[in-house]
């Protein structure tokens, strides 16, 4: 049965196809099955094909759609995680558990372990800081806290030097749950993450998580936005391009990413900066072929720009960009 908020969105679709070229899986496959329009038809007619599983949940089609179809409502209603994915989502909710699980999986020699090792090079226990009378809460995001601890540490040390008292909140915003159709579980995870936030000022270090939380009504700033608000700009110091994480771009955060960089003379032109990185949350783990093709296409765009470094403020994007040998830094790595 189609959920009512999804049905409304399905009915808004006029099948014009304006969304097709914005969809990374359509661009790669040129198949209607792997396009937003095809997927909407599948859900409407209750058909079964690969298209539902191959959606990267990037929501680029929503930006392109002139009829205002909120596609995410359709795809979340059509997906249900299997037991394996449910366990994975539960693991993301506890970054310490994510650390232990990743360490264990990386030791294996199965297909899943090999895939994880292709993307993840460093695993650390999440940084924990809870200063007395904290006046700034830092939400790293589950992937950031476990696979990019050095970035979190650098941001926190910069903020402390700037006079803030920090509390880190480790956990998962629930975006990964939404992408798998586990809306209720995602909301529970988000509520747990922000339960102590109340009116405290909070920043998030993973731009797609920032966007997801804001969409769910949580008052949180992206690091880039916070830097601008506090009059800080970073210097890259070499030719660079800025990757726009998909959900952050939908939320209008790309403008802050751009504004937070001082040496614009070093910025190179890149075709379609918000083109998917290829990670798609956990998509890369379960859809190797399409994921690798999207990564390759993104890689081509970056290399054509002649940039030496890519600025990425979303950790799963950074993992995918690094996989193809690109040098990637977060704005937080450039703070001194
Ligand atoms: S989702 Fe929007 S852009 Fe895509 S086919 Fe439907 S109406 Fe057209
Ligand atoms: S969410 Fe992304 S991958 Fe899925 S249909 Fe829309 S553009 Fe394509």
Describe this structure in words.
By secondary structure, this protein is mainly alpha-helical. The chain has three domains: 4-78, Fumarate Reductase Iron-sulfur Protein, Chain B, domain 2 (Orthogonal Bundle), CATH 1.10.1060.10; 86-228, Rossmann fold (3-Layer(aba) Sandwich), CATH 3.40.50; 233-334, Rossmann fold (3-Layer(aba) Sandwich). Helices cover 49% and strands 6% of the residues. The protein contains 19 helices and seven strands. The chain has helices at 4-12, 24-29, 36-45, 60-64, 71-78, 83-93, 95-107, 111-119, 142-147, 149-161, 175-179, 183-193, 207-215, 223-229, 246-250, 254-259, 283-286, 288-305, 315-323, and strands at residues 136-139, 166-168, 202-204, 221-222, 240-242, 309-311, 328-329. The strands form two sheets. Strands 2-1-3-4 form a four-stranded parallel beta sheet, sandwiched between helices. Strand 6 (309-311), helix 19 and strand 7 form a beta-alpha-beta unit. Helix 3 (36-45) crosses helix 5 and helix 7 crosses helix 8. The longest helix has 18 residues, at 288-305. The radius of gyration is 19 Å and the shape is globular. The N and C termini lie far apart (53 Å). The model has no long low-confidence stretch (mean pLDDT 95). The protein binds iron/sulfur cluster (SF4) (2 copies). The site of one iron/sulfur cluster has 15 residues, from helix 3 and helix 4. One iron/sulfur cluster binds at residues 13-19, 36-37, 40, 61, 64-65, 67, 69. Keywords: 4Fe-4S, Iron, Iron-sulfur, Metal-binding, Repeat. It comes from Sulfuracidifex metallicus DSM 6482 = JCM 9184. One of its GO terms (molecular function) is oxidoreductase activity. This is 4Fe-4S dicluster domain-containing protein. InterPro entries: 4Fe4S_Fe-S-bd, 4Fe4S_Fe_S_CS, Cys_rich_dom, Helical_ferredxn.
